[in-house]
Amino acid sequence: MLLGLSWLQPNRSRIANADKGRVEALRLTLVVDEAHFAFQRVKQMTVAPEIIDWIDTALVNQGVGVALVTTPQFLERIAQASVQVGWNDGQFKRRVSKWERLPKRIQR
User: Fold this and answer.
1) Are the CB atoms for 32 and 38 separated by under 8 Å?
2) What is the per-residue pLDDT across 33-69, written as a single tens digit (0 to 9) for each?
3) CA 102 to chain centre
4) Could you tell me the residue range of the domain that residue 85 belongs to?
5) How far apart are CA 9 and CA 12, in angstroms?
């Protein structure tokens, strides 16, 4: 089954409420590629990362599996949000059960 989520499109800055409900009702594992884009892409963040907070509260807290695929930039964004908007990065990090660094190059 294919589930299209409009909030993953690059020009959307907010999560559509209808899409939130669709994911929350399914009980699947959600895989988010390029998860570093869940944070504001600005020098000075002004708000907490809404998508990450939603993943924590509506999905992880309810037992929905989530895998975030990202670049090392993700950890930089976590630190930036913590410092610039006072976001509780420790709460997010405690929910992560496994961090896996992938090799820079895939062996053939």
Assistant:
1) yes
2) 999 999 988 999 999 999 999 999 888 888 888 999 9
3) 18
4) 29-95
5) 6
